[in-house]
Write a structure and sequence with these properties.
Helices cover about 40% and strands about 20% of the residues. The chain contains 12 helices and 20 strands. The chain is of the alpha/beta class. It has helices spanning about 40-50, 55-75, 80-95, 100-115, 120-160, 185-190, 210-220, 235-240, 265-275, 295, 305-310, 360-365, and strands at about 1-5, 5, 10-15, 20-25, 35-40, 165-170, 195-200, 225-230, 245, 250-255, 260, 280, 285-290, 300-305, 310-315, 320-325, 335, 335-340, 345-350, 350-355. The structure holds 5-S-methyl-1-O-phosphono-5-thio-D-ribulose. The site of 5-S-methyl-1-O-phosphono-5-thio-D-ribulose has 17 residues, from helix 2 and strand 11.
């Protein structure tokens, strides 16, 4: 994606110094475009837990590079090196609980290490695997765009070219992945192809990923959009102002239950009540093949209640934090929820579109048939 005319991925190896991995610190967007240099696995853990980087795909890519940085800083002694890598893996896996891409990327790095015979070979393997994880994430999102755009094209034809109104929640955009985004990839491609679209952007309290990040991305790409408060979607749907919903996912079970940013479930309920298709776009790295019951089994992150009671905002030239709630009252902050498969119209993946069911998922990912019984 381009920012002010210049191409960026959300994470990249520094071309001048390969011991450094660069990220965009998303906490300051859309007001400041700030690039941070990561040099250690601790930098990567902090970037994930403090949400400098966020979104399932990007969390996975950051974990992949975090393992690479851990390898660079680990002992040359092969036995100690391997022990340090296991410790680094634990640190990364505990940085945030819900997005399964995190554990997936760390395990992939640990698996790749099994083929190395000493620390210097391991460092080469870790760099290659980190770059592969990031490259595959980018390509998966590009393909999600190719598949998903057909759904938008169909609605556009049915509406005889009138704008297709798409509602999205949170940020499953370019900033949540390495490039393109999952939910936004079909949107960007439709816009590029000249299909008339308009995006309703849920603000996504309490962290405002929608109003700060998705809206900024769409503006950079010139996609018509409007920010709405989180509770407006149902009203818009009742008035015929939403043609489809596309959201992302942080973890999807082998049965098609979808964990995504809190509030997604309510949008799915409203969409079902109004006969509006509800799509979930995800790369296969977001499937948790071992889980069958999303509500019972997917760990839901709980963050500080302060995120609910305070907001960060931009005042002239700097960020300020203001309180927006009664100081005496406690607040609770569950940051994801689970939408059961029965409310999802279809999943859009890099291999195509399928029903959110073991059969549908198996048809695209036959290599997991053993698990998907
Ligand atoms: O808490 P976040 O910002 O890391 O949450 C992730 C998200 O942005 C959403 O849940 C998104 O829709 C899926 S991530 C591709």
């Amino acid at each position: 994606m381009k920012v002010a005319g210049e191409y960026y991925q959300t994470i990249w190896l520094d071309p001048q110094d390969e011991t450094v991995v660069n990220i965009i610190d998303q906490r300051f967007l859309p007001f400041e475009f700030s690039i941070e240099r990561m040099k250690t696995v601790y930098d990567a853990v902090q970037a994930i837990s403090e949400m400098k980087v966020r979104g399932a795909g990007l969390i996975g890519a950051t974990a992949g590079f975090g393992m690479y940085l851990a390898g660079l800083n680990a002992s040359d002694n092969w036995k100690i090196f391997r022990r340090q890598m296991v410790e680094a893996a634990d640190l990364l896996k505990n940085a945030r609980p819900t997005a399964v891409n995190l554990a997936w990327a760390v395990d992939r790095q640990l698996g790749a290490l099994e083929h190395a015979k000493d620390s210097s070979e391991a460092r080469v393997v870790l760099q290659k695997t980190a770059l592969d994880i990031a490259g595959e994430d980018r390509e998966s999102c590009r393909l999600i765009g190719e598949h998903g755009v057909k759904l938008i094209e169909q609605i556009s034809e049915n509406k005889e070219g009138a704008p297709v109104n798409i509602l999205t929640h949170c940020n499953a955009g370019w900033l949540a992945f390495v490039d393109y985004g999952s939910a936004t990839a079909p949107i960007y491609l439709a816009h590029k192809r000249g299909i008339r679209i308009h995006v309703w952007v849920d603000e996504t309290r309490p962290w405002n990923q929608g109003s700060r990040l998705t809206a900024w991305e769409l503006a950079q790409e010139g996609v018509p959009h409007t920010i709405i408060t989180d509770n407006v979607g149902g009203h818009l749907m009742q008035r015929g102002m939403v043609d489809m919903v596309i959201v992302g996912s942080d973890r999807t079970t082998s049965t098609g239950d979808v964990a995504n940013k809190v509030g997604t479930y309510l949008k799915a309920l409203a969409a079902r009540d109004n006969g509006i298709p509800f799509y979930v776009a995800l790369p296969s790295s977001t499937f948790d093949w071992n889980l069958k019951d999303g509500i019972a089994e997917i760990p839901i992150e709980e963050r500080s209640g302060n995120e609910v009671k305070k907001v960060m905002g931009w005042l002239k030239d700097r960020f300020v934090e203001v309180s927006i709630a009664s100081p005496e009252s406690p607040a609770i902050n569950y940051v994801f929820d689970v939408t059961p498969a029965r409310l999802v119209t279809a999943l859009i993946t890099e291999r195509g579109i399928c029903s959110p069911s073991p059969e549908g998922i198996r048809s695209l990912f036959p290599e997991f048939s053993g698990i998907l019984q």
